Hints:
CATH architecture: Sandwich
Low-confidence stretches: 12-19, 134-149
Number of strands: 8
Structural class: alpha/beta
Strand content: 25-35%
Order of helices and strands: HEHEEEHEEEE
Largest sheet: 5 strands, mixed
Number of helices: 3
Helix content: 10-25%
Number of domains: 1
Bound molecules: 2-acetamido-2-deoxy-beta-D-glucopyranose
Amino acid sequence: MAKHMGLIGCSIVVVLSLLFAASEAARYNVGDRFGWSVPPNETFYSDWASSKTFIVGDTLVFNWTGNQNVADVPMADYNNCSTDAITFTGSPNRTVFMITLLYPGPRYFICTVDDHCARGQKFSINVEWPFSSGPSPSARPPSYSSAPSPSFGV
Ligand SMILES: *[C@@H]1O[C@H](CO)[C@@H](O)[C@H](O)[C@H]1NC(C)=O
Ligand SMILES: *[C@@H]1O[C@H](CO)[C@@H](O)[C@H](O)[C@H]1NC(C)=O
Ligand SMILES: *[C@@H]1O[C@H](CO)[C@@H](O)[C@H](O)[C@H]1NC(C)=O
C-alpha cells in the first residue's frame, strides 16, 4: 500500500511539473534594454507591449534610474494620465520593480512623475489565461437546425 501511495505521489509530481513546463512563466524587461523611462516617442511602450503575449504567471520587470515610478491604474486613469494613482516608487539610484500578473484581463501601467505619462511612459496589456491556445470555441457541436428532416416511405 505504501508503495502504491508513493507511486501516486510520484505521478502527481510528474503531471504538475509537465503542466508547469507547458505554461512556463516568462519574465519581461519592460522596454527591453531601454528600461523604464521617458521614451524617445509616445508609442515606444505600446509598440513594446504589442509584440508580446502576456499569460497569467508572467512577470513584468520595471528597471529604472532617476525619478520614475510605476502605477497600476484603471483604464480611465490610464487614458487621462491621472496623477492621483498610488504608485510604486523606488530608490533614486537604481530600482528593479517586479509585478507578477496573477489574473487575466486588461492591465494599465503609467508613470505619474511630471508629464512622463503624457510623453508615452505608459502601456496597457491584456493578460491571458494559460492553455487558452487549446480547443477553440469554434469547435462547437454541430447544429441540427438545418438538417434535412428524415423522410420515411415513398
Ligand atoms: C520610437 O522610438 C523607437 C526607439 O528609438 C524606434 O524604434 C521607433 O521606430 C520609434 N517609433 C516612432 C513611431 O517614431
Ligand atoms: C537593469 O538595467 C541595467 C542597465 O541596462 C542592466 O545593467 C541591469 O542588468 C538590469 N537589471 C535587471 C534586473 O534586468
Ligand atoms: C481622470 O479620470 C478619473 C476617472 O474618471 C478622474 O477621477 C480623474 O479626476 C481624472 N484626472 C484628470 C487629471 O483628468
